[in-house]
C-alpha cells in the first residue's frame, strides 16, 4: 500500500525574484535605443503598410509587436515595452499630418486606421503582460 502524501503548506510560495539582464546604465542606454527604434519602426511600418496593404499591414504589425515585446524582455520592465510603443505612436501621428504640399504618408483609409488601432493594442498588450516589473505588487 502506498503512503498518502501529507498536506502542503497553506501559504503559497513566491517564485524567486527575477533580476533584469541589464544594470541601471545599460537600461538607460537601451531605453534610448528602443525609443529610436520605435520611431524608425513607425516610419517604416507606415510605408510598408500602405505599399502592400494586406501583407504589408501584417508585416508592420509583426515588426512593432516584436519591438515592443523584445523591449520588455530586454529590460525586464514595463517601461521597456511602453517606451517604443509611445515613440511608435507619436511617429505615426507625425506621418498622418498632411504636409503643406498636400502629401502625407499614412492616409485616412482602412489600412491606416487598422495600423493605428492594432499597433496601439499590441503596445498595450505587450506592456501589460504579466511577469514584467515596474508595477504595483500585492503583498
The average pLDDT value, as a whole number, equals 80
Secondary-structure element pattern, one letter each: HHHH
CA-to-CA gap between the ends? Answer: 42 Å
Percent in helix: 55-70%
Strand percent estimate: under 5%
Number of strands: 0
Number of helices: 4
Structural class: mainly alpha
Task: Quickly list its features.
disordered C terminus, elongated, 139 residues, mainly alpha, single chain
Plain-language structure description:
This protein is an all-alpha fold and 139 residues long. The protein is built from four helices and no strands. It has a domain of 93 residues. Helix 1 runs antiparallel to helix 2. The chain is elongated, with a radius of gyration of 20 Å. The C terminus is likely disordered.
Amino acid at each position: 500500500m502506498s503512503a498518502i502524501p501529507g498536506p502542503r503548506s497553506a501559504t503559497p510560495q513566491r517564485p524567486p525574484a527575477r533580476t533584469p539582464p541589464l544594470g541601471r546604465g545599460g537600461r538607460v542606454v537601451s531605453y534610448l535605443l528602443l525609443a529610436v527604434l520605435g520611431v524608425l519602426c513607425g516610419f517604416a511600418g507606415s510605408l510598408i503598410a500602405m505599399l502592400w496593404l494586406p501583407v504589408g499591414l501584417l508585416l508592420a504589425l509583426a515588426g512593432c509587436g516584436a519591438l515592443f515585446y523584445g523591449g520588455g524582455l530586454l529590460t525586464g520592465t514595463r517601461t521597456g515595452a511602453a517606451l517604443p510603443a509611445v515613440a511608435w505612436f507619436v511617429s505615426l501621428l507625425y506621418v498622418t499630418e498632411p504636409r503643406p504640399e498636400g502629401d502625407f504618408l499614412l492616409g485616412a483609409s482602412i489600412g491606416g486606421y487598422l495600423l493605428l488601432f492594432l499597433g496601439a493594442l499590441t503596445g498595450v498588450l505587450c506592456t501589460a503582460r504579466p511577469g514584467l516589473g515596474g508595477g504595483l505588487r500585492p503583498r
